[in-house]
Structure formats: structure tokens, C-alpha cells
Design a protein that fits this description.
mainly alpha; 182 residues; 7 helices
Length: 182
């Protein structure tokens, strides 16, 4: 009788470990998928910024080269990428876009061109998609980290080598509301 109880206990414990492992793997895959989606959207933004850089070239060669230097820092974000890598790419994207906007302010005919307007519109669409993908990623990380840190699942996570993952950094400049004082 004692043997049956021990076998039943071991069997229940093994089933629980397998269940937790499957849950952790599933949540980790969701995190990787979310990071991959960020990469896809960032690539689309890079392509749109490259098109904008080509428009800038006909107005200001120096600024074109400066923008191309920033664009050369482009790297691919995949499911295996770290949050810090995605954040670095966002910083480079922001720098390239800032340089393009500076040139557009200096050359009103560039800013008024139909091609510039369409390219900026696509950059904005992709920027919104990246923002949504970043939210999905951080939500996925929250669920994963919660599972890794909560007892008793944390026991299995530690034994199997699952560790807490980093969140994407918040861009505090975008979070601040402009002053509405008159």
C-alpha cells in the first residue's frame, strides 16, 4: 500500500513538473513571437526612413550622408533578440527621423512634396504598429515573469533554467504631456 502511495505521489509530481514546463515554454514562445513582431515593424519603418533619406539626398547631400550613417546602424530584431537591442534600434530610428524632420524644416518644398507626405505617413503607421507590438511584448513578459517568480512554479522554473526577462524601456519623452497653459 505504501508503495502505491509513493508511486502515485511521484506520478502526480512528475505530471505537475511537465505541466509547469509546458506553460513556461508556451509563455516564452509568446515572448519571442512578440519580439519578432517588433522586428518586423521596425524593418518596415527602416525601409520607409530609407525612402525618406533618398528624398533628402536631392536637397542636402551632407544631411543625406548623416542619415545614411544612422541607417547603417540598422540590425535585425528577431525572437531571440533582447529588449535592450530592440530599444537601441528604436533610438537609432528616432535619430534618423529627427534628422529627416530637421532637413524638411529647412526645405519647405521637400516638406510640401507628395512623396515626402506619403513616406512620413507610412513611417507614422509603422511607428504606431511598433508601439502596439511593444505593448504586446511587455504584456507577454509580464505573464512569463509572473510564472517564473510565483511559488510553486518558480521551483520548476529555477530547476529548468527559466529566468526573468527584461521589459522594453519606456520612452519618457513620449510619455510626458506638453504643457497646456495659456
Amino acid at each position: 500500500m505504501t508503495t502505491i502511495i509513493i508511486i502515485a505521489f511521484v506520478l502526480v509530481a512528475a505530471l505537475w513538473v511537465v505541466s509547469v514546463q509546458r506553460k513556461l515554454v508556451g509563455r516564452e514562445e509568446l515572448c519571442k513571437n512578440a519580439m519578432s513582431q517588433i522586428g518586423v515593424q521596425q524593418n518596415s519603418r527602416w525601409d520607409a526612413l530609407t525612402a525618406l533619406a533618398e528624398l533628402v539626398k536631392s536637397y542636402n547631400e551632407h544631411e543625406y550622408r548623416t542619415i545614411c550613417d544612422v541607417i547603417s546602424k540598422r540590425s535585425t530584431i528577431t525572437g531571440a533578440s533582447k529588449a535592450s537591442e530592440a530599444d537601441a534600434q528604436e533610438a537609432y530610428l528616432g535619430l534618423a527621423l529627427k534628422n529627416i524632420k530637421i532637413v524638411a524644416e529647412q526645405y519647405p518644398q521637400l516638406k510640401a512634396s507628395e512623396n515626402y507626405g506619403k513616406a512620413m505617413e507610412s513611417v507614422n503607421v509603422y511607428e504606431n504598429q511598433v508601439r502596439m507590438s511593444r505593448m504586446v511584448y511587455n504584456d507577454s513578459i509580464t505573464r512569463f515573469n509572473k510564472t517564473v517568480r510565483q511559488f510553486p512554479d518558480s521551483l520548476v522554473a529555477g530547476i529548468l533554467g527559466f529566468a526573468v526577462k527584461d521589459y522594453l524601456a519606456e520612452d519618457v519623452t513620449k510619455a510626458q504631456m506638453p504643457s497646456m497653459k495659456i
